[in-house]
Write a structure and sequence with these properties.
The complex is a heterotrimer of chains A (253), B (377) and C (462). Chain B is α+β, with helices and mostly antiparallel strands and 377 residues long. Chain B is built from twelve helices and seven strands. In chain B, β4 and β5 form a beta hairpin. Chain C has 15 helices and nine strands. Classes of the chains: A alpha/beta (253), B alpha+beta (377), C alpha+beta (462).
C-alpha cells in the first residue's frame, strides 16, 4: 500500500512541477498516470523512489516514510521498487547480461560487485529474467546492439532482478511504435497479475483503457482526476488535455 | 543594416592588417635576408638529407717521408724506394710559403687519401683529402706553411693515410646511438603517459560538473581542478622540462616528469569532458535499483567512459612520443638530447640520422594511433 | 584407442610447432589471430630485451614462450588459456625496463632544492616599487703605479675616498663616503676597467650592504676582488677601477621592473611570431591543400603522382617539430624572432595543409551539382558551392593553429628563436627564479586568454 500525501515539488529554477498531490495505491493495482508532457508525471514517479526529493509532502510505502528515510534505508526501499524508463536507460556499452545483473546491485556484496564478480545463482536468475521477456539469447550482446523494443525488455528484466513489490514505469512505450507498445505493456500486465503493483505513466488514452485498473490525471502539477478509465468522458478529456488536444486523441485512437 | 556591416567588416579588416603590420615589425621579419642567406643553410640541409647510417670497416695504411723546411734545417729522408708504395715530392725540401707537388705511386687503388703533416712536436695537421686512381697513383699540390718549419733540428713529416674499405656495410655508430636514444624516447613517452593516466583518471571525476558540482565544497573542488588543469595545459612540456631539469639535473627523468605533469592536465581535461558527456539516464536507473554511489560509478559511469579514455590515452601516447623526441633539448635524455649534442658539435650527418629517426617514429606512431582509435569508435 | 591417438597427435604436434615458432601451433589449430598476436607479442618482447641487454628481463620472453606452448596444448584439447598471464608478464617487463631506462630515481628529487627553486617563484619579478637612486663612485688604481693619483672624488656635496690610493689583487682597502642619505642601506660594489660588476661581500659572491650613519656617512673595508684583472690585457699595467656606492629609496607607486618589461616584450614577440607564422602558413597551405586533396587529384595518374608527392612532403614536415626546424633557420637568418617565426610557419604549412585538404575532401557534392544545374559556369560554381563550404572550416582551423602556434612560440626561443622562450632560458641560466616565475605567469595568461578567444571565435564559425 502506497500513500502519497500533499506532495509538492518546486525546482530550483522556480518551476512548480507538483502541487499538493495526494492519492493512494493499493497492492496489486495497475495505476496509470496520465497528463500532457510537462504535467508532472515524471516528477511524481521519481518522487516515489526519491530520485527527486519532493519539496513538501510525504510518501508512505507499507507505512514506512520514504521521504524521511536516511541514505542506507532509502537504498533498502529502492531495491524493492523496480523502475522502467522511457529512454530505457541501459548502459549502452555494457552487455545485456551486465545490465540485467545491475538490477541486483542493492542485494549483492558491494565489494564483490565493484570488481565485477557475481555469484552463479545471480547469473542464473538474470538468465531467467531475460527468458521471461523472451530475449535470453541476447545475453552476451552489447545493449546498444538491440532494437528499441528489445532494450525496453532488458529494462523490464533489470527491474525483475530487484524482486520488486512495486514497479514504476515512466512512459515505458513513448519511444516505441504502437505494435511494440502492446507487447511491452503486456509484460507489465503479466507481472501485475502475479501480484506486483504497477504505477505507469502513459500518453495514449487507448492504452489507458486497455490496461489501467485505475487512473490518476495530472494537469500543470495538480491532480485533476482520479477514478476508472471508463469515467473519462469527452468533457473530462478536454479538462485534462486542453481544447486543442482533440485531434491528437483522434489520431491515437 | 548593410552600412553597419560594411563598417564593422572594414574595421575588422583594418584591425587584422594592423595586427600583421605590428607582428611584422616585432618579429624583425626580413624576407630579403632569408633569400639572400638561404645558401648558408645549404650545407646543413644537405647534411640532414644524407644521414650517417652505415659505415665500412676501413683498412688504414700510413706511409711518410721527412720534409725539412727550410732546406738544410734537418736531414732529408734517407732513401725513397723505387717501387712499392712510395711518396715522391717534386722537391726534397723547400722554404716556407712555397708550393710543391706531391706524388704517390703503387698505393691502394681507388682509395680515399688523407694527406697531413706530422709536426716535430707530434701534432697532426690534416692538409688535403683526395683519392687514388685505379693504379694507386695520386698527385696533389701542397703548401709549406711556416708552422710546419723544422724545430730543434727535427723535420716535419708528410704522412699519407690510405683508407681502403674492407668487408661489407655495417650500421654506423651514429645509427646505433640513435636507436638507443629512440628506445629511451619511446619508453619516456610510455612511462609518462601511464603515470599521467593513473593520476588523471581519478582527478578527472573531480573536474566533471555532473559528478562533483554539488554543494559549496563540490563546486569549489570542481572550479579548483578546472583551474589547475587549464593552467598546467597552457605550458609546453619543454618549459616544464626546463624547471624539472633545473631541479633534478639532466637526464631522461626530468623530461619524463615534465611530460607527466602536462599530460595529467591535458588528459584530466579530456577525461572530465568524457565523464560530463555520459548518459544520465542509466545512472538514474542504477540509483533506482538501490545501488550505492560507488556501484553507480562502477556500473554506470565506468563502462560508458572506458572507450573514450582508451582513445584519449592512445592519442596522448602518440603526442608524447612526438614531444619526447624534442624534450631532450632542455631536459636531457632521449633522441632530443642526442640531436642537441650532435648539432652543438657540428656533427650534422649524425643530426640528420636523428631527424630521420624522429620522422619515421612519429609517422609510425601517428598511423598506429589513428588506426587504433578508428577501431575503438 | 584410435580416438585417443588422434587427440594426442595434435597435442604433441601443436606443442612442438609452438615451441619452434611461438604462435604456430595456434595457427595450425585454426586460431589465426591468436597465433599471429602471440608471435608479434613474442617478437616485440624479445627485441626489446635483446636490445636492452639486461639478463633479468630475458625471463619475460621465456615465460611467454612457455605459456605459448601450454596454450597450444590447451587449445589442442579444446580449451583456450587466459591471456592474463602473458599480458601481465609483458606489462611488467615493459614498465620495468621503462623505469630503468628513464632512470627514475626519486632520491634525486631533493625537496630542499625544490623549495629553493619554488620559493622565489612566489614573488614574480614583474613590478617593483618605484624608487630613486643616489649614487657615488671613486676611482682606485690596480695595481699601483709609481705615483698613484689620490683616490678621492667629490660630487654634489658627496665625497668618496679610498685608502690607500691604489692596491693589488686581494689587498684590503678602506673605503668611505659621506653626503649620502642617512640611515639607508648602501650597496658597495666594484667595477673593473671595462665596467664588469664584481661583488665584494662574503666570498665575493654576495652584495656588500652597509647602512649609513645619521650624517649619511659610512666607512668599511673591502678587498680588491680576485677576478678584478681577469679581463685586463696586461695584469701588470696599472688601470683605474671604480668603487660604487648605491642607495635606493621608495618614492611611492610601482613601476614595471626590468624583467617585467622584458617579459611584456617577450609576450608580444611570442604572439606576433605566432600570428605572422600562421598568416604566412595559410598563404602557402591553401594552394598546397588543393594538390593534397584526394578527390581533386585522384583522377588521372599525373595528378595522382603530384598528390602523393605533396602528401609525403607534408607528412615529413609535420613529423619534424618546429623547434628542430628553428635550428636550421637560426643558421640561415641568425638568432631572433624571425628565425622562430619562419620555423613555426614551415611546420604550420604542413599541419594546415593536411587539415585544409581534409576539408576539401569532405566537401558535399550536392550543392555543387545543384548550382551547376542552374546553368552556372565554373567560377560561379566555385564561388557559390565550394567557397561557402570551405571558408568557415578553413578559418576555424587557422585560428586553432594560431592558438597552437602561440604555445609553440613560447618554446621556440630555446634554440634562439626569440620570444618568451629565449628570455626563459636566459633567466634559468643566471638562476633568476623570480624572473622565471614572471615568464611562467605571462605564458599562462597569454595562452589561456588566446585559447579562450579562439574557442569562442571557432564556436561562432562552426
Amino acid at each position: 500500500m502506497l500513500r502519497i500525501q500533499n506532495l509538492s515539488k518546486t525546482y530550483p529554477g522556480g518551476t512548480q512541477a507538483l502541487k499538493n498531490v495526494s492519492f493512494e495505491v493499493n497492492d496489486g493495482e495497475f495505476l496509470v498516470v496520465i497528463g500532457l508532457s510537462g504535467s508532472g508525471k515524471s516528477t511524481l514517479l521519481r518522487c516515489i523512489n526519491r530520485l527527486i526529493d519532493p519539496t513538501e509532502g510525504k510518501v508512505y510505502w507499507d507505512n514506512v516514510d520514504v521521504t524521511a528515510a536516511p541514505p542506507t534505508e532509502l537504498r533498502q526501499i529502492r531495491r524493492r521498487i523496480g523502475m522502467v524508463f522511457q529512454q530505457f536507460n541501459l548502459v549502452k556499452r555494457s552487455s545485456v547480461m551486465t545490465n540485467v545483473l545491475s538490477g541486483r546491485l542493492g542485494y549483492v556484496n558491494p565489494w564483490m560487485s565493484l570488481i565485477g564478480l557475481w555469484p552463479q545463482d545471480e547469473k542464473k536468475r538474470a538468465l531467467q529474467a531475460l527468458g521471461r521477456v523472451g530475449i535470453a539469447d541476447k545475453a552476451g550482446e552489447r545493449a546498444d546492439a538491440l532494437s528499441g523494443g528489445q532494450q525496453q525488455r532488458v529494462g523490464i528484466a533489470r527491474a525483475l532482478m530487484q524482486d520488486p513489490k512495486l514497479i514504476l514505469a515512466d512512459e515505458p512505450v513513448a519511444s516505441l511504435d504502437p505494435v511494440l507498445s502492446h507487447s511491452i505493456l503486456q509484460y507489465l500486465e503479466q507481472l501485475n497479475k502475479e501480484g506486483i503493483t504497477v504505477i505507469c505513466s502513459l500518453h495514449f488514452l487507448d492504452l489507458v483503457h486497455r490496461y489501467a485498473t485505475r487512473v490518476v490525471a495530472l494537469k500543470d502539477g495538480v491532480k485533476v482526476f482520479e477514478g476508472s478509465a471508463q469515467e473519462i468522458d469527452r468533457a473530462k478529456f478536454k479538462e485534462i488535455y486542453g481544447e486543442e488536444a482533440q485531434e491528437v486523441r483522434a489520431a491515437s485512437m | 543594416m548593410p552600412t553597419a556591416r560594411i563598417i564593422r567588416n572594414t574595421l575588422l579588416m583594418a584591425l587584422v592588417v594592423a595586427a600583421f603590420a605590428v607582428s611584422f615589425n616585432v618579429t624583425e621579419a626580413d624576407f630579403p635576408r632569408l633569400f639572400r642567406d638561404l645558401p648558408k643553410g645549404k650545407d646543413l640541409i644537405l647534411a640532414f638529407l644524407t644521414p650517417d647510417v652505415a659505415t665500412r670497416e676501413m683498412d688504414t695504411r700510413t706511409i711518410s717521408i721527412a720534409f725539412p723546411i727550410p732546406c738544410g734545417s734537418a736531414p732529408n729522408e734517407n732513401v725513397i724506394p723505387s717501387e712499392g708504395p712510395r711518396l715522391v715530392p717534386s722537391v726534397d725540401c723547400t722554404d716556407p710559403l712555397t708550393k710543391f707537388t706531391l706524388e704517390g705511386f703503387d698505393l691502394a687503388p681507388n682509395s680515399e687519401l688523407v694527406i697531413r703533416w706530422k709536426l716535430p712536436d707530434e701534432r697532426l695537421m690534416t692538409a688535403i683529402r683526395t683519392r687514388t686512381d685505379s693504379e694507386g697513383y695520386f698527385t696533389s699540390e701542397v703548401e709549406a706553411r711556416p708552422i710546419i718549419a723544422t724545430k730543434n733540428g727535427v723535420a716535419s713529416r708528410l704522412e699519407v693515410d690510405t683508407l681502403t674499405p674492407v668487408g661489407g656495410l655495417k650500421p654506423s655508430q651514429a645509427l646505433l646511438d640513435v636507436l638507443d636514444a629512440m628506445f629511451e624516447t619511446i619508453f619516456m613517452a610510455l612511462l609518462s603517459t601511464t603515470i599521467a593516466t593513473i593520476i588523471a583518471a581519478p582527478l578527472s571525476f573531480l573536474a566533471a560538473s555532473n559528478i562533483t558540482k554539488r554543494g559549496v565544497i563540490g563546486t569549489s573542488v570542481y572550479y579548483i581542478m578546472r583551474f589547475i588543469f587549464n593552467v598546467m595545459r597552457a605550458y609546453d612540456p619543454l618549459s616544464m622540462a626546463l624547471i624539472f631539469a633545473f631541479w633534478l639535473s639532466f637526464g631522461p627523468f626530468p623530461g619524463a616528469m615534465a611530460l607527466t605533469v602536462v599530460t595529467i592536465a591535458s588528459l584530466g581535461k579530456l577525461f572530465s569532458e568524457a565523464v560530463e558527456n555520459i548518459d544520465k539516464g542509466s545512472l538514474e536507473a542504477l540509483q533506482a535499483t538501490g545501488a550505492n554511489p560507488l556501484q553507480t560509478v562502477r556500473y554506470g559511469v565506468v563502462p560508458q567512459v572506458i572507450p573514450d579514455f582508451i582513445s584519449y590515452i592512445v592519442y596522448h601516447w602518440d603526442i608524447n612520443v612526438r614531444i619526447s623526441t624534442i624534450i631532450g633539448f632542455v631536459g636531457g635524455g632521449g633522441i632530443g638530447y642526442y640531436l642537441n649534442l650532435s648539432i652543438n658539435d657540428f656533427k650534422w650527418h649524425q643530426a640528420g640520422t636523428a631527424i630521420w629517426a624522429i620522422v619515421i617514429v612519429v609517422w609510425a606512431m601517428d598511423f598506429l594511433s589513428a588506426e587504433v582509435r578508428k577501431r575503438l569508435t | 584407442m584410435n580416438n585417443e591417438a588422434a587427440t594426442r597427435r595434435p597435442i604433441a604436434r601443436s606443442a612442438i610447432a609452438s615451441a619452434l615458432i611461438p604462435g604456430l601451433g595456434q595457427i595450425l589449430l585454426g586460431q589465426r589471430y591468436r597465433g599471429v598476436g602471440i608471435l608479434l607479442g613474442f617478437l616485440v618482447m624479445l627485441g626489446t630485451v635483446v636490445w636492452y641487454k639486461d639478463p633479468v628481463w630475458y625471463l619475460s620472453p621465456v615465460l611467454i614462450w612457455l605459456w605459448n606452448i601450454w596454450d597450444a596444448v590447451g587449445l589442442a584439447g579444446g580449451r583456450a588459456r587466459s591471456l592474463l598471464l602473458p599480458v601481465l608478464v609483458g606489462l611488467a617487463a615493459a614498465y620495468g625496463i621503462g623505469w630503468q631506462v628513464v632512470e627514475i630515481d626519486f632520491r634525486n628529487a631533493d625537496l630542499d632544492r625544490a623549495a629553493a627553486i619554488v620559493r622565489p617563484m612566489a614573488h614574480p619579478d614583474f613590478i617593483q616599487p618605484r624608487r630613486e637612486r643616489k649614487q657615488m663612485w671613486v676611482q682606485v688604481q690596480v695595481p699601483c703605479s709609481s705615483e698613484p693619483p689620490t683616490a678621492r672624488r667629490e660630487e654634489e656635496g658627496k665625497v668618496a675616498t679610498v685608502i690607500p690610493d691604489c692596491g693589488v689583487v686581494g689587498e684590503t682597502l678602506i673605503v668611505s663616503v659621506n653626503g649620502m642619505w642617512p640611515n639607508t642601506e648602501t650597496e658597495v660594489t666594484w667595477r673593473t676597467t671595462i665596467g664588469d660588476l664584481k661583488l665584494v661581500g662574503e666570498g665575493e659572491s654576495q652584495m656588500l650592504v652597509v647602512t649609513t650613519d645619521d650624517a649619511g656617512s659610512l666607512t668599511t673595508t673591502i678587498r680588491v676582488p680576485s677576478t678584478a684583472l681577469v679581463a685586463a690585457p696586461d695584469p701588470s699595467l696599472p688601470q683605474f677601477h671604480r668603487v660604487y656606492f648605491d642607495q635606493y629609496r621608495p618614492i611611492g607607486g610601482v613601476e614595471l621592473s626590468y624583467i617585467g618589461n622584458e617579459v611584456l616584450k617577450g609576450a608580444l614577440d611570442t604572439v606576433a611570431m605566432a600570428l605572422l607564422a600562421t598568416g604566412l602558413a595559410m598563404l602557402f597551405a591553401i594552394p598546397l591543400s588543393f594538390l593534397a586533396a584526394h578527390n581533386l587529384m585522384g583522377g588521372n595518374p599525373i595528378t595522382y603522382v603530384i598528390y602523393v608527392a605533396v602528401r609525403t612532403l607534408l607528412n615529413i614536415l609535420r613529423s619534424i617539430e618546429a623547434i628542430i626546424v628553428a635550428i636550421v633557420f637560426v643558421v640561415i637568418v641568425g638568432l631572433g624572432p624571425f628565425a622562430g617565426m619562419l620555423a613555426l610557419a614551415l611546420h604550420s604549412v604542413a599541419a594546415l595543409g593536411k587539415l585544409y585538404s581534409e576539408v576539401i575532401e569532405g566537401i558535399d557534392p550536392g550543392p555543387i551539382e545543384a548550382i551547376r544545374a542552374t546553368g552556372a559556369n565554373w567560377v560561379q560554381t566555385v564561388r557559390y558551392a565550394v567557397i561557402p563550404q570551405i571558408v568557415p572550416p578553413f578559418t576555424a582551423f587557422t585560428i586553432y593553429r594560431w592558438d597552437i602556434n602561440v604555445r609553440s612560440a613560447t618554446i621556440i626561443g630555446f634554440v634562439g628563436g626569440g620570444g618568451l622562450g629565449f628570455l626563459l632560458v636566459e633567466l634559468i641560466r643566471v638562476n633568476n627564479m623570480r624572473g622565471v616565475s614572471a615568464v611562467f605567469i605571462a605564458i599562462a595568461v597569454v595562452v589561456i586568454v588566446l585559447d579562450y578567444f579562439s574557442a569562442k571565435l571557432r564556436e561562432r564559425l562552426v
